[in-house]
Design goal:
Oligomer: single chain
Low-confidence stretches: none
Distance between the termini: 23 Å
Order of helices and strands: HHHH
Radius of gyration: 15 Å
Structural class: mainly alpha
Number of domains: 1
Number of strands: 0
Shape: elongated
Helix content: over 70%
């Protein structure tokens, strides 16, 4: 779990270092579709993280206010979180009780 949090922090740090380009509604729609697909993939196994769901909701709110850059960033965050949750599912799906 610490590794995945560190990965997300590093991802954002790298993103902040680059130049910022204005995002559009089509950029958001692409990012949202990718995030939704990643979230649905892990959610069908019951392993979706609530932070990913929150990021999707926040992305939608940012999009409704016309803040496309923030909306895209949050959708991409939701994608990363959902992908990490799926990796957790994969590593734990065959785990049994420890007693």
């Amino acid at each position: 779990m610490k590794t995945s949090k560190l990965f997300v922090v590093a991802l954002f740090a790298l993103g902040a270092a680059g130049t910022v380009q204005a995002a559009s509604s089509s950029d958001y729609n692409r990012a949202k579709a990718e995030a939704t697909a990643a979230y649905d993939k892990v959610n069908k196994h019951g392993y979706a993280w609530t932070v990913a769901e929150d990021a999707l909701k926040d992305a939608e709110a940012a999009a409704k206010s016309g803040n496309w850059n923030k909306a895209v960033d949050l959708a991409q965050e939701a994608t990363v979180l959902s992908e990490q949750a799926y990796k957790q599912y994969e590593s734990e799906k065959d785990a049994g009780p420890l007693f």
